[in-house]
Amino acid sequence: MARKFFRSGLSARKALVVGGLMVAAVAVPPFLSPFPLSILMLIVIFAVLAMSLDLLMGYTGMESLGQAAFFGMAAYTIAIVTTRYGVGWQLAIPAALLAAIILAAIGAALAVRMTGLFFLVMTLVFSQVMWGLAHRWGSMTGGYLGLHGIPRPTEALESPLTFYYVGLGVLLISGLLMYRLVRSPFGLTLRGIKDSELRMRTSGFNVWLHKYIVFVIAGAFAGVSGVLYTYSTQFISPTVLGVETSFEAMLMVIIGGAGTLTGPLIGAFVVTGLRNYLSVFFDNWVIILGVLYIITVFFAPQGILGLLPRRWRAATGVGQEPSAFDEARIRVESEPAPAEPTKPDIDGSAVETLRLEGVGKTFDNVRAVHDVTLSAHSGTRKVILGPNGAGKTTLFNLITGVYKPSSGNIFLFGENVTGTASHARTRMGLGRTFQITNLFPTLTVMNNVRLGVLGVRRKKFAMHVPLTWLDDVNERCRDLLEMAGMWDERDTEVANLSYGHQRQLELIVTLASDPQVLLLDEPAAGLSQAESRSMVALIKALDPGLTVLIIEHDMDVAFEIANEVTVMHQGEVLAEGSVEEIRANELVREVYFGEAYA
Amino acid sequence: MEEWVTQVLSGLTYGGLLFILASGFTLGLGIMKIVNIAHGALYLLTAYIAWTVFQSTNSFLLVIVVCAAVGGLLALALYAGLLQRLHQRPLAQILVTMGVTLIIAELGVIWWGGYPRTVERPGGLAGTAQLGGVTFPTYRLFMLGAAIVIGAVLWILLERTRVGALVRASVDDEEMARGMGVNVGRLYFLVFGTTGILAGLAGAIGAPFLGAFQGAQFDVLLLALLVSVIGGLGSIPGAFIAALLIGILDTVGKSLFPELAHFTLFAPLLIILAVRPTGLFGKA
Amino acid sequence: MATKRVWLALLLAIGLAACTADDSGGSSTTAGSAASSTTVGSTTATTTSGGEELPTLKIGIPLPFTGVVAQSAEEMRQTFEMYVEQQGGTLGGLPVEVIFEDTETDAELVVTKTRKLIDEDQVHLLSGPMLAFEGLAMIDSVNAAGIALVGQTGVAADDYTRLDAPTLTAAAKHTASQETMPLGTYAYDTLGYRTIATLGQDYAWGYQTVGGFQFAFEAAGGDVVQKLWAPIGTTDYSSFVNEINRDVDAVYVTLIGADIPRFVQAYSDFGLKAEIPMLTSEDLVAQDAINFYTGDAAIGLVGITPFTANLDRAEMQAFVEAYQERTGNIPTFWGESAYVAAMVIDRSLQYVAEQNGIELADLPQWVRDNGEAFASASREIDLSDAPSSAITVDEFNRQVRDFYIVELVNDGDTITDSLVETVPAVTQFWTFDQDEFLANPLFSRDFPPE
Question: Contact C33/A283, CB-based, under 8 Å?
């Protein structure tokens, strides 16, 4: 109760701050002389650009050095159509935004499949090509000197103050739209992608598509900023397309605080302000700027926003550092799993859900998996045993589509899925947990489960509704978390969960996509006795109709759950059968138990 | 025909310089995952130093030694003072090294003035050489030769020595290497110091050709970034091939389509990256 | 520990910044990079004979103190201040406050800083800028405010003659083509060249210097057979050098910045220097270019320039001496332009005060309100004692002046320029008919055609 009260108190304080800033932004400018006003105008413009970049950098983890391309594309479109063709603003602005969006769609097609530095360089090269175009296509762009004398839309807007208010309005609307976006299910998927692309794919998301969409949206907002820019300076040259513009936007995001919308706003304020004012007061001001950058990294690693008191930060959503390990939270769930333990028999009439035919995988001439043929039905509880390097995890990666098999075919629910993408298999009803916990560490428990649920629903693309409004999704999350006894932990960041709970949560997130075939990779690895028991209980409580494949080293766990056992050795299936059969198998004892218990 | 030989040779020799500019950057990026924006600034500073040393001693050999030493020491200082604590934090690295770049470039203005400084070509490298009927500037041939030597030495260090094997092992699996008792921290110092030495060599060898000028800190960085990524991060043979390729693209492109100078460089790179996203020699 | 290191770095950096701030006035190697406001000369307020305190005239000068041309911008600041100090800290009898703003070589900031000077600092008139693109970027704001702009080197573009810029006077800078047209005629008539290849950089100054040269050369009967355009900041000029047609009589080149030594070196490296003479504009024969040539790659270069420090002219020698005493360096056309701009302001103030019977106390405000009349005054004043040449001003507020054809020669172990010929009283239309000249389009990539 107290906690809830506290939280609402926080948002009231935050509203006060934001509201105060807004009042200041509206009330102060009339008293400013033209120069500070023009700086304020630039801040407004670059705030929109920096926010658009933060959608990529801070939320999705796509560090782009090409945002200037879309900014410049819109800016140049306005300049060209108004000065060369005399087009009015009513047409010029939509044309500029469209141009930015189309360019972003092209850029996304090239860059989105890349990650990390490759993405950074691809976006850089892409914007450099546009920069080259602005330089060389002189008859259209005015070349090196650019275009000047661009009129503002109306006479009234020639007044700096009026134009500032229009710009502020645009910033506000853009900010609200982006705020809405990042709070929506689609926004959550972006944060999920930033944390773990693999987990996203495993949960049924087409990661590429989400990145593509957000890239285009960010390009569109960069275009909005470009439109404001051209009308504001009424002059444009290839510098706006240069790497300096992209880089400056990136600095604003980093300095302000990535992964929030307030951060880029602060960053735009600080960087633009410093750039224009330091030079007025100091000789060699560039050195001071350089030192400030360095200081920011060491004293405000989360950006300036990160310097705010922790409680405020929580309200603005900046990622907090993991707090000290909370001993109190590590308690094993004492309440037993709700359903009575069942060990379904393989029914002769059960449907075949998964079949592998001669599947093999070779890495650099090393045979990881060779000629594996196996079959599982609804109700199957198959444990896969084998020493390290037997190819068990590789087999899971083949079934889920992380790897493409070198030979053979994989059938899911009777359909050949050998060439099907990972996320599409998840949507068909395949679920999987990982040997090394794979969750979204910076998201809360609740949001982890939400992503699991959303993965197989169309609502993951919804951008207009906040997460909290999705009653059916939230209900389902509640059911799942209550089943595992983790409802109380729903607001805990996953990085702060105990290891045992992380393992359980991963199973829950996987179950959230309603899989019919479930692959569990060493679910009990590294757990204490008690934690391990509660995990077994959770697995035994699963819907008996599911097909479950489990890789497990712990024999007690394995034999307690299994009704079928497959033993692998050096990438091949060594033996198959019931628990009793395997226990009795000489060959298995020799190769496997012999080695394992040597 | 003769003209084409000259053009291609020009491209190759320019590519040699590009390799020297990029080799340190690609090592830092590939091996230590450090985005060192200040690489270009190290070039600028050592090129200025090259000018001063050559003015006062007239010894190109001394220029090379001093620049390599200064580059290496500065890189070590940068690593010890700042970057060491920023592992796996690319954004922080970018911001910090950008700050360092601004400071170094401004010190260049203060100490050497804003004018461009070009180092005179040392005696034996100043003239032209005859290559089967083609007259070609000796210094350009020297740039290519130096690139081959530097590339070969780096390759041997990485692939054929114990230290190189340790470095490669640490790149593949840092935890494992630590577990096996490798002093990974010291290795990283060694590698980053090497990137600085390479930046210093770039300054020494580049100063008579590109010169030291305000803006070089970003021009060089951009070129180094392109070469590194096209070649595949951390790959010395990759960077070498990419540098020569970019050199030829730039030179031949400019003479075939002088109207499209920027395009002829960037558009093919865009295509290469679109086809091979991890670069020519990059690992997926 | 860690914290200590960072603070150490910080202190070091601030210390360095402070040190350089201290000696930015005198040391020759220092380029003060920031904007500053200087009240030049005596600090006590100047008063009229009646004891009444005079208002200060505020002059705003945007210059690129950060970036590739920072050093030359610093030279311009120095010469402007030098002129004011020579007048005892006054211009036209008024105490002066000069506000320098750093444009950082960025077109967007030129606009911002110009507006700051006009609106925030409430300057009475503007001077500057340094680079052609800066001039074109700021002219809209200047026109909108109706404030006088006493142009320095940044108003060299031919455009202004055809643009509506009534408050601009370019008394301190000639046009781009004005400089190179005499060289075109000279190349044909005196040097006897018949075919020429040109190389310029891909922007207005390049188009207009090359265009002017070609226009006059072809009018005399010659033929420009090849025109090459290089992007600014080309790192390797070998492809352009190898592209040059080897059968031409001469090559004409205009470049700026770090590209100059690279091209000249490549031209010599590939053996063209021995075969084909090179002609050029002011940029390649100015002292700052000479400073960064190495070896003898540049020896024999023939160029036309409005300024050479070796000129046998009393005003020039006085100017060079004063500047050397102040900074230890030899001035260039950059500094002279700023110096002449100060001279123009000084004498125009005196002229308008006299002509219109304005009290000194009202003069600053009058200048602010009558930008066009102030700019036009430059046509009436005497500038016969400008350092590099006697200057008159035409009806477009443009310079009419002498140009010098010089050759770079070896003088012991340094390179110096040697005067070959003086071309007296050149107008922006050279020998052509004004109306016919203005009927042509502006010089560009495509005009005159190859």
Answer: yes
